[in-house]
Design goal:
The structure holds two protein chains of two kinds. Chain A is mainly α. Chain A contains 23 helices and four strands. Chain A folds into two domains: about 5-160 and about 275-330, no CATH class; about 160-275, no CATH class. Chain A has helices spanning about 5-15, 20-25, 30-35, 55-65, 70-95, 100-115, 120-125, 125-135, 145-150, 155-160, 170-180, 190-200, 210-220, 265-275, 275-290, 300-310, 315-325, 340-350, 360-370, 395-410, 420-425, 430-440, 445-450; strands at about 220-225, 240, 250-255, 255-260. The radius of gyration of chain A is 24 Å and the shape is globular. The model of chain A has no long low-confidence stretch (mean pLDDT about 95). Classes of the chains: A mainly alpha, B alpha/beta. Chains A and B meet through helix 12, helix 20, helix 22 and helix 23 of A and helix 6, strand 8, helix 9 and helix 10 of B.
């Protein structure tokens, strides 16, 4: 078998980890293999048992309307938890078996870029649906469409507290003022701020507190149907623009005035943000950090950013620039795998089945994410999971990866010959030291442990 | 209306700025200082990072400020004595009613509260704010190491008492605060079985060509051995109380140990209360209650080492002075910090209170900062760890000359 480092880099750095046979199949044209994954409609994970967010939220809304507070506290988590498990295990199963792992890595990248966190109960039932409904359909489209789909999605509106943000000059606020109601209404600037800071321009993208506040006013009324009280009405669980909550009048964001009357105002601001040069730079930096190096080479960032601006945010063109960046194909391996990378590359490399029949099976399949510290959709903050080695290679984190490799060796060591498997998974990136350590191992189990804990397997 | 001693403290800090440390005292606190209650042990420092921007106006409500209630209908904490009212501190401030242990510390003169405090960061990004809180520079990403690690690296050799690792971070990975030139341990409980010796040896051999992984693995094994010896058994339960219990028990286990680390860091999340923050009860109250219970457990677990311990609680910035439209608060500027422990000269609120009138607010929205958080940190480093004063501004907090260390934070 003749392999170049490029095949292993394509499969492990750009993809989600080689399966036996992959490297031989792609060795003749690793870049072409990546580009080929960008053709055709993106897969939608439309398997049975995964419910739409509107359906889930409508059921939650029924529970809220019918049950007392105590019952709700029990029943909402009871509704959401099995949905979360099913989503997370379906996603793992797909990542383990997909023939378009580059596209799937990009999907996970965007899902993390537009992070929602299931630490917040309201998001637990819909984090997976958000990825399927807002991200997957647009991962090969235009960034502006992706952005709009995510910011309108109920999971994001709930996560960043926008559903009941009320303009101080809105008809609702005025009605309450006339009645001298003590009810407090006003804006919540969380969504507006994080869109600017995290989703588009980046923290150094040149916006001010005044822009945050104005954008938050623009976004008042972006809500979800089927709530209680002032949030009643509309189709339960679906995006709903509520004119009564919206701050009327023009708003000035980044020096530009937006005079549109309703939901179009927010859409126009998002369009402008999506095409902003600061957004291009921010996204190019994050992509280059994810695919090339923790401190991405400026030249690569520049090329990716230019591709973004030249094509009006056409994502396949951006990905092509990423594949073309020569910096991405250099050795040594520049990225330390996140726990999720590690888990998926193990599942792919060992071709582990992802049993999803029962909740217990789902939990078992997902246990490794939790063990290694990266439970699905739980970054704990809207910034998403960090993407630098120092965030993941702490002493305790490393030891746990080694212990997990040991557990896998003991469990699956007799099913694999690690001496054969190592070159299949690591190709020309397999070092002589690892090769000989595996060859000299005391048992098949130990050999597999050494492969899965090897420095070149921990990196990509 | 004026908080006890605030002028004294603030002026004292300024007076101390030029003194630096006198060489002869360098070792005393870390090694064998004697206090009024008999001989002291080695000084310990715990730093708790509260991630997400704690609402200082809820944790330490300025109930005596005439604008407080007006700004916060529905989420203001009531005055002491009222139902679910604040726990009294002085004529202006109280503690959130769920902070019962902190209140006991205050009564025992083991808690100092700093209010209207902020670091040098003035924008409102959590992520950059935390970066500055931890890197000790004046801007985000200006330094890639943490100030507490640099402080450990700057301690004179005798203070180490031959230790390899003077610091420990509880968690799988090191927070920025503890990254840097000084070797520090990190520790998280493992749910997996330990490796047999032969396999472990072979993994170590495999990493011999990879200095980073070799060092990390060696650190982990050393810390693990220490945790086992200290009885640091960890069973994870559900919920914040169980998580605190786990991390606090491990922290205390390390700090109690004779040759163990003396500086520990752990972090907590979930303080970003944009919606439905609650007042005495509710979301923030629950989190404060869990934190308070965790600190009480820390004292219990530290046993006699408590009297040698100072605990700093700090967050990246505060929250808006007024309630927002969703019964929460948005990102703000100044907030509170706490210093507690048996080593602390407490029972005081240190605040140059700017007030909450429309004119007094920072950018018409936030509590204005009147005290630099670095003054607190520098004071603690100087008095508790005996860090030489020159190092404070040279390597630990570069560009902080304007933030003189506070004095008399720690018992003599």
């Amino acid at each position: 078998m003749q392999e170049t480092p490029a095949a292993a880099i394509a499969a492990n750095r750009y993809g989600l980890g080689a399966r036996p046979g992959d490297l031989a199949a792609i060795a003749s044209d690793p870049r072409g293999w990546l580009r080929g994954q960008l053709a055709g409609p993106p897969p939608q994970l439309a398997q049975s048992g995964l419910r739409g967010s509107a359906d889930i939220l409508a059921e939650a809304s029924r529970i809220r309307q019918e049950k007392g507070a105590q019952d709700q506290q029990r029943q909402i988590p009871r509704l959401y938890r099995p949905i979360y498990l099913r989503e997370a295990s379906a996603r793992l199963a797909f990542a383990t078996t997909t023939d378009r792992p580059f596209l799937e890595r990009l999907t996970w990248f965007w899902s993390n870029h537009f992070a929602v966190s299931v630490d917040k109960l309201a998001v637990l039932g819909v984090a997976g649906a958000c990825e399927r409904e807002a991200i997957r359909p647009h991962v090969l489209g235009r960034f502006a469409d992706l952005l709009l789909a995510v910011e309108r999605h109920p999971a994001m509106l709930l996560y960043l507290d926008n559903t009941s943000s009320v303009g101080p000059g809105s008809t609702l606020a005025q009605r309450l003022a006339r009645r001298r109601s003590a009810a407090s209404v006003g804006i919540n600037e969380n969504l507006g701020r994080e869109i600017l800071e995290l989703h588009t321009l980046g923290v150094d993208g040149g916006y001010s507190q005044a822009d945050v506040t104005a954008f938050a006013r623009v976004l008042t009324g972006w809500s979800i149907g089927g709530g209680k009280g002032r949030l009643a009405g509309g189709e339960p669980g679906r995006f709903l623009f509520r004119p009564a909550l919206h701050e009327p009048g023009p708003q000035r964001v980044l020096g530009q005035s937006y005079a549109q009357p309703g939901v179009e105002q927010g859409e126009a601001v998002l369009q402008a943000l999506a095409g902003h040069p600061a957004t291009a730079r921010h996204l190019a930096t994050k992509l280059a950090r994810h695919f090339i190096a923790d401190d991405p080479p400026p030249a690569a960032v520049e090329r990716i950013s230019r591709a973004f601006l030249a094509t009006d945010g056409d994502l396949p063109a951006v990905y092509a620039a990423l594949v073309d960046a020569p910096e991405g194909w250099e050795m040594p391996l520049g990225k330390f795998k996140t726990p999720a990378d590690q888990v998926i590359s193990v599942f792919r490399g060992l071709q582990l089945p992802v049993a999803s029949g029962s909740e217990a099976q789902q939990r078992a399949a997902l246990a490794a994410f939790e063990l290694l510290g990266q439970r699905s959709w739980s970054p704990g903050s809207p910034a998403g999971w960090p993407d630098r080695a120092a965030d993941w290679n702490g002493p305790s984190a490393l030891l746990q990866r080694v212990e997990w490799a040991d557990a896998l060796g003991q469990r699956f060591g007799t099913l694999h010959d690690a001496r054969q498997l190592a070159p299949q998974l690591l190709g020309a990136t397999l070092g002589a030291g690892t090769r000989s350590a595996i060859a000299r191992a005391a048992s098949p189990a130990q050999a597999l442990t050494l492969l899965l804990a090897a420095p070149e397997f921990l990196r990509r | 209306m004026s908080p006890v001693n605030r002028r004294e403290i603030l002026l004292g800090g300024v007076a101390a700025a030029g003194l630096g440390a006198s060489g002869g005292l360098l070792v005393s606190r870390l090694a064998l200082a004697a206090g009024p209650d008999g001989p002291r042990g080695e000084a310990r420092l715990v730093f708790v990072i509260l991630r997400g921007a704690v609402d200082g106006l809820a944790a330490v409500p300025p109930w005596g400020d005439p604008d407080y209630g007006r700004l916060r209908p529905g989420i203001a904490i009531a005055a002491p004595g009222a139902a679910q009212g604040a726990l009294p501190l002085d004529g202006l401030f109280g503690l959130h009613p769920r902070l019962a242990f902190l209140h006991e510390c205050y009564a025992a003169a083991e808690l100092t509260v700093f209010h209207a405090v902020a670091g040098p960061y003035r924008q409102r990004s959590h992520f950059d704010g935390q970066d500055v809180l931890e890197n000790g520079a004046t801007a985000a990403h200006a330094l890639q190491t943490g100030w507490l690690n640099r402080a450990l690296a700057a301690l004179p050799a005798p203070a180490r008492q031959g230790r390899q690792q003077l610091g420990v971070a509880l968690g799988r990975n090191l927070p920025l605060l503890m990254r840097g030139p000084a070797a520090v341990a990190s520790w998280a409980p493992s749910r997996l079985a330990a490796l047999d010796e032969d396999t472990l040896q072979r993994v170590q051999d495999l990493y011999a060509q990879d200095p980073l992984l070799a060092q990390r693995l060696a650190d982990a094994l050393a810390t693990n051995a220490m945790a086992t010896a200290a009885g640091g058994d960890a069973r994870q339960g559900a919920g914040p109380a169980a998580r605190y219990a786990e991390v606090v028990r491990a922290t205390a286990g390390f700090l109690r140990r004779d040759a163990g680390p003396r500086v520990a860091v752990f972090d907590t999340q979930g303080w970003d209360t944009h919606a439905n923050e609650g007042a005495a009860q509710g979301q923030l109250g629950q989190r404060l209650g869990a934190l308070d219970a965790g600190l009480r457990l820390l004292k219990d677990e530290l046993g006699s080492a408590w009297r040698d311990t100072a605990v700093i609680l700090a967050t990246e910035f505060g929250r808006t002075a007024a309630v927002n439209g969703t019964r929460g608060t948005d990102h703000g500027t100044a907030t509170v910090a706490f210093l507690l422990g048996g080593a602390v000269r407490g029972g005081r609120v240190v605040a140059d209170w700017p007030g909450l009138s429309a004119r007094a607010l920072y950018q018409q929205r936030d509590l204005a900062p009147t005290l630099d958080l670095r003054s607190v940190f520098k004071g603690v480093l100087q008095e508790q760890l005996q860090l030489p004063g020159a190092e404070l501004e040279r390597s630990v907090f570069p560009g902080s000359a304007g933030a003189a260390p506070l004095r008399d934070l720690i018992r003599a």
